[in-house]
Amino acid sequence: MAATTATIVLPGDLIPQDALPAPQNKKKVLKLGPGLRQTPPTIISASIAGALVADARKGSAWIETNSGRYTPTANDLVIATIASSAGESFNCTLTPHTPTALLPHLSFEGATRKTRPILVPNSLVYARILTASTQVSPELTCVDASTGKSDGLGQLKGGMVFGVSLGMARRMLDRRNGGVVVLEGLSEKMGFEVAVGRNGVVWVDANEVGKTLAVGRAVQEVDELGLGEKAQRKLVERVLRGVA
Amino acid sequence: MAPEASLSHLHRADGSATYIHNGYCIIGAVNGPIEVMRRDEMPEEATIEVNVRPAAGVGSPKERHLETLLHSTLRSIILTRNIPRTLVQITLQVRSLPEEDGTSGVNTSLTLLPHLLNTALLALLSASIPLRTILTSLLIALPTPTPKMKQPVPILSPTSTELFRTQPIASLHVFAFSADRKLLLSESEGTFKYAEWEEAYEMAEEVCCRDQGGVGLGGGEGMEVDGEEASANLEEWLRGVVRRKVEVEQRWRSAT
């Protein structure tokens, strides 16, 4: 985990060619992630403030920032709240005050026209975003279309949800480079289930309210204080002493 | 003196900023992109809503006027077409005004405007709303020529005390510039000649925009922005604020 000196960009800054990954061959085009926009033909500029990150291997560049509202993106794993059931699908909320996302009744494992899942309003589902665009509301799914299996997606029963920053959610999902060891540390001594949604929601279930709260609060503390690995291990020790 | 700013300190808002300068303290909060009311929905653009709340009492026509100015200025820098059919809600709460604000004998909506613009921009940056460019804003006062001083020196971002002391003020100007030195807003009041306005415009441009040259990439610029350097130039100051924000966000990388 090398602490590289980040290049800070502000909206409107032009990104010079040498700051972007060089195209290795003609077929591999440069991919622009969040916060970068292209003005044809070759001008690339930033549209949000943050640190410019370039991945030479993938040929992509984006702007890393840890603030703002979650924008639905295809293939993201999210924790959605059921708002209502209408006709063929559920209306789900990903973030407050945004148009609801659609979760069809049939996109659950083993669901057929005769046996539909019954989810009451305010139940939680762990889902994948199928399509997302600025023009239509996002569509969710809880099943892998090719295999028909749920792969861990579906309703989340019991437990509690905790809000974390979007950056923390990304770190927890990116297991290699995220630098989050608090969950591994806690799992050595106690059993619990965790689901992380890219929309900044973490669901924890440890069968006991005290333990669930301890895990969730530990994750939130790591997020708020920006703890490193050593500090996280210390926190794990403190939390385990508290619940034992 | 450079303005003080802190970003993303409100938990419930998507983006927030507090801005303190010359006795003005303003809290800005941005929510967005969120669902827009049917009535205000635009099929290909985002709707922008600006609310200015005064330090005391409820809003008056003065606040409505400021909201109109802010709305049209911010609309030109927000990439509204990237987030169609949504709402970006900007709320600016004036927390405190300098004590002499009411007694300095000048238009108080003009003295407040540059601070509101800078706060709104910081809050928008904090909320990661897609922007075309950044914006920096400044107030300039031109004192009335006296027999002693035929050519009065314009005062850059004067404090209320300065305005009070250099009575009578001939004219007040508010300028807002984008990063590529384009004029986004110019509001003036009082009696002035075109040459005087142009002089004020050039002075404001010098302070708001930094020298054209590097585009802020590469390690050329200093890592730490010290007080004097930051006060000299508003764009440099803004970069310093954002750099500190990114450092706070990325501290887990270097933490042990």
TrEMBL record, chain A:
Signal peptide: none annotated. It holds the Pfam family Rrp40_N. One of its GO terms (cellular component) is nuclear exosome (RNase complex). One of its GO terms (molecular function) is RNA binding. Its main location: nucleus. It is found in: Nucleus. Keywords: Cytoplasm, Exonuclease, Exosome, Hydrolase, Nuclease, RNA-binding. Residues 159-209 form the K Homology domain. Residues 30-69 form the Exosome complex exonuclease Rrp40 N-terminal domain. One of its GO terms (biological process) is nuclear polyadenylation-dependent rRNA catabolic process. Coiled coil: none annotated. This is Exosome complex exonuclease-like protein Rrp40. It comes from Amniculicola lignicola CBS 123094. The lineage of its organism: Eukaryota, Fungi, Dikarya, Ascomycota, Pezizomycotina.
Automatic annotation (TrEMBL), chain B:
Residues 6-130 form the Exoribonuclease phosphorolytic domain. Its main location: nucleus. One of its GO terms (cellular component) is nucleolus. Transmembrane segments: none annotated. InterPro entries: ExoRNase_PH_dom1 (IPR001247), PNPase/RNase_PH_dom_sf (IPR027408), Ribosomal_Su5_D2-typ_SF (IPR020568), RNase_PH (IPR050080). GO terms for molecular function: RNA binding. Coiled coil: none annotated. GO terms for biological process: nuclear mRNA surveillance; poly(A)-dependent snoRNA 3'-end processing; rRNA catabolic process; rRNA processing; U4 snRNA 3'-end processing. It is found in: Nucleus. Keywords: Exosome, Nucleus, rRNA processing. Belongs to the RNase PH family. This is Exoribonuclease phosphorolytic domain-containing protein. It comes from Amniculicola lignicola CBS 123094.
